[in-house]
Design goal:
alpha/beta; 44% helix; globular; 7 strands; Rossmann fold; binds NADP nicotinamide-adenine-dinucleotide phosphate; 7-stranded parallel beta sheet
Length: 259
């Protein structure tokens, strides 16, 4: 088969958590363009509607499911509903996560620690488990976890070590499950982004331009990532093009970890 055909996703159905905005929307767009039907999950119905309209306008087939993936129980409910309403799901991109805290460890309340671990690690485990099990039965599947370079290095301008710890654990979870599922046709890989200019980050940098300059200075390419620059990697990991790849945590950061 010609190599570009191995990137096609015709007849596949994907679910992207946090697919209504940011990196998730760009990954959903890539999968749609490659021919997959895509279910996007997020909390805000308005954002979901806008994203479905945008993806459909590009010729894709997109659906939405509103859910708050703040913890494992809510993730389990969402996955059950997704399989019931949209199954079978062949490709799961566990993209929801986030920091949105800036506590020093010596001041961090236990509840805050738990909240971030649930959001970045536990709900991704639940989605991998519930969406992955039927993939194993069918003998083909792709799980892509969105980790972060914060799983490898501690952030300097931002604290909140629960985020870094959760993303490091998500990377190791990816590898361990990949080993278990490798003989059964389901690959499990992770993407570890550096800093991207999502709308949320653009707003943040608008408020604190000195922070953007500070982060850019740590990136050998001298700039932050455009959200669309994650699309090719997500499509590769979602498709037959990556058939011999599992348990990889692929860094995409403009060279940030090189220094
Ligand atoms: N952006 C970066 O520079 C960067 C760097 C490294 C790693 N990452 C990782 O990449 C992933 C995506 O980041 P992003 O910056 O694109 O995220 P984002 O802009 O904060 O959010 C993107 C999506 O997640 C949804 N979402 C957020 N919280 C949710 C929840 N509790 N339940 C369900 N949906 C939720 C949002 O929709 P609603 O708000 O409507 O729910 C939206 O669709 C995260 O795991 C993040 O840790 C990002």
């Amino acid at each position: 088969m010609p190599v570009l055909d191995r990137f096609r996703l015709d007849g596949r159905r994907a679910l992207v958590t946090g697919g209504s905005r940011g990196l998730g929307l760009e990954m959903a767009r890539a999968l749609c363009e490659a021919g997959a039907e895509v279910v996007i999950v997020g909390r805000d119905e308005g954002h979901l509607d806008d994203a479905v309209e945008e993806l459909s306008a590009g010729g894709g087939r997109a659906f939405s499911l509103a859910a708050d993936l703040a913890d494992g129980d809510e993730a389990a409910r969402m996955c059950a509903l997704a399989l019931q309403s949209f199954g079978p799901i062949d490709i799961a991109i566990n993209n929801v996560g986030g920091r949105r805290i800036n506590f020093a460890t010596e001041e961090m309340p236990l509840e805050e620690w738990r909240r971030i671990v649930e959001l970045n690690l536990t709900q991704a485990f639940v989605c991998t488990k519930v969406l992955g099990a039927p993939m194993l039965e069918r003998g083909w599947g792709r799980v892509i976890n969105v980790a972060s370079i914060s799983g490898f290095v501690a952030g300097k301008p931002m604290r909140g070590r629960s985020y870094e710890t959760s993303k490091a654990a998500l990377a190791m979870f990816t590898k361990a499950v990949a080993a278990d599922w490798a003989p059964r046709g389901v690959t499990v890989n992770a993407i570890a982004p550096g800093t991207f200019l999502t709308d949320a980050n653009r707003r943040w940098f608008h408020e604190r331009p000195e922070l953007k300059t500070e982060i850019e200075a740590t990136v050998p390419m001298g700039r932050l990532g455009e959200p669309s620059e994650i699309a090719g990697l997500a499509l590769y990991l979602a498709s037959d093009a990556s058939s011999y790849m599992t348990g990889s945590v692929v860094v995409i950061d403009g060279g940030r970890l090189l220094w």
